[in-house]
Structures are given as C-alpha cells and as structure tokens.
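Build the 3D complex.
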Amino acid sequence: MIDNKIFYFNKIKIFFKHTDYFGFVHPYNYLEWTSYVREAFFSEKCGNFKEVLDSNIKMMTAEISSIAHEESAFGDEIEAQFTCNKIKKVSFDVHIKFINHRINRLVCETFHTLVFVDAASEKFTLIPEGIRNAIIEYQEP
Amino acid sequence: MLAPMNSNSTKNQIFVYKYIVRYNDIDQFKHMSFANYLKLMFIVVDVLLESKIDHDVFRLKFISSSMKFKKQTILGDKILISVEAIKLLKTYHRMTINFRFRIEGSDDITGFGSQEYEVKSLKKEIPPYDYISKILEGLNLQVTSEPLIHD
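Done.
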C-alpha cells in the first residue's frame, strides 16, 4: 500500500538577503531551497544516504523547472512540501511546493528529475534501495 | 532549431556572458550545483536588461524557469551563456528568453535554459510592450513572436 505522504520542511524564513529591488523574494531562492529540502529529505528518510554519498553512485539533476505563483516578503515563513512521482528504475521526479504561512498560499513550486549514474562506468544505475524505499512512501497519488 | 531569423536581421547580435566556475560554486562532489546554473540565467538577464530598465517605470516579473542539463562543470571551467532567442508577446505582456550553456574551448553543451517574465509597466501611460521592445531593439537582439524551441 502506498502511503502518499508529504515531507514537510519548515525552516525557511525570509531575511533581507532573500529580497530583491522591489522587496519581494528573489525567485532564485526557491531553487536554492529546493536543494536544501531534498537533502533534508534524503538525510532524514533514507537511512543509508551517507553510504550512498561515499559510494560510486552519483545522483544528478537532469532537469529542473520552477513556477512562481505569488510574492513573498521579509519576515514571511515558508513551508516546503516534498513529494515524488514518476519513479522508474534509474530516475524519479521531485515536486516541491512552497507555501507562505502569512497568506496561506502556494507561492512557488519546483519540479526536478534525479537520475543515478555509476561514476566508474558512467552508465545509469538503479536507484539505491534506501532511497527507493523512502520515496515510494512519498509518491503523489 | 532556433526561432526563425528575421529576414532583415543583418544587424542582429548574439549576447554571450562568460562565467568562470569558482570554489564557492562547487559542492563536495566537485561539480557546480544545479541551482547555480539557474542563478546564472538571472545574472544574464540582469546584465542584459535590468541595467537598462528604469525601475520606477518598469518591472520584469519572474514567471517561470526551466533547465535541462547535459554535462557537469568543474572548478575553473569557463561557461559561455548565450541568449539564443527572445520571444515577446504583445497580447499577454510576456517575454521568454532561451539560453544555451557551453564550455569555452571544448564547446561542449552543458545545458539549455529558458525563463519567462511578465513585462509590467509601473506607470499606466507607458505600454510595457513598447518599453521593452525599444530596449531590445537598442541591443540589436533577435526578437520574435514565434514559438521558441531548443535542439
């Protein structure tokens, strides 16, 4: 049975350095936070993630996109929601939604595809078991 | 295939921004992280357009961004980011910019990117399309209303 869970990352708060000329969050930040959120997920949910990092298996971003919906500003608190889909043998997609707590709206979402490559042979390799077991639980319905 | 060239496009230029991968761009795997590539697209737009815009009059509001990665880059690589084509739609006040990333020297393609902006006039009397198209014309860049596609 698939649980369709969501991984929540609640540690994003907007500071001056995140804002642009007009006082809104610069959209680049959501891309940087995307990397934080996915690394937090892997660290917490994939028990052997450090072993994967030390192995010959490389996790690579094949493509990424982001869509802005609403603006955020200094002092806002953002919650990121991580889910997966299109889980295949050597790749899967990650979908992250950024929700602004002040306005209770979706402000941005990012989508990216991760592929796994054996660094020695430079060929695609299977998603490591610890990661696969974790992402299955967070698959979108 | 790029957007079709304007048949009178003898003056059209290609804008290329050169960036050298630095220590603080790369991570423990010794490659530039994906977020930095997207940051480079914002930098190119800043250099190309934002420096020419009066921000009391006009705003480029980000809508979306996408990137496909072909090859990773390492410390010291010289990345050439070229603005391949710009699509400007009068009706919807939208501008799409396509980028190509390649490594100087080898000419290996590291990726293709695209960004879409809403062109917003902050003063009602200044039509946004006219404002931005004048800036682009001044840069002699190829601008089209045709769909943009990458190789």
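Chain B is about 15% helix and 35% strand.
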